């Protein structure tokens, strides 16, 4: 019975394709989601820096109060990141397939980060004089590793969104570039308006005030919130 139930939707889909039923169109990229990814990246960078400091404190003689203050700063950054991810989840339906995939990957990573940080805060409150001993040291190390993974995931998607937007913008410019008339060509300079000139082959010589059309074209270079309790 399980095999039949699993195969049935596939058979039905095949029948629909044979009948010529169109598939649902995919959403284009959402500018709103791309912007939210950039905001999430900024807060993830800050949270990762906090986690790095907390982990380094375990190899020092700093008091538990210094640990507590740094954890509080990280808690605030994680809560800001939680608001970003909540907004991303709310906008998921308008996103393109890769943007929806990004949200589906980021959401559980942030939840794990928030849960671990909450447990770390509780442990510190109950063991204030043991910040240089296991298991607090293990909490701090795992906290850093989770923040590193979270940042890497968000950064990859945010950077992809930015690069994709720049590429599409460049493609539009290239497609809309005017074509020169017969016997004429454009001399393009980076960052400047193309200069329209008559070629030497057409005129037989360079007239006064004309730019020789011998310069090469420029090379184009690729350019719900997780509120972590304070425990206080």
Description of the structure:
The chain contains six helices and two strands, in the order αααααββα. A hairpin with a 7-residue loop joins β1 and β2.
Q: Briefly, what is this?
A:
With 232 residues, the protein is mostly helical. It contains six helices and two strands.
The largest sheet has its strands arranged as 1-2
Question: What's the pLDDT, averaged over the residues?
Answer: 78
Assembly of the depicted chains: single chain
Q: Uncertain spans, ≥5 residues at pLDDT below 50?
A: 1-21, 188-226
In sequence order, what are the helices and strands, one letter per element? HHHHHEEH
Descriptive tags:
232 residues; disordered N terminus; two-stranded antiparallel ribbon; mainly alpha; 63% helix; 6 helices
List the helices and strands and how they pair.
Blueprint (H helix, E strand, L loop, with lengths): L1 H17 L12 H27 L6 H27 L6 H30 L9 H41 L7 E4 L7 E4 L1 H4 L29
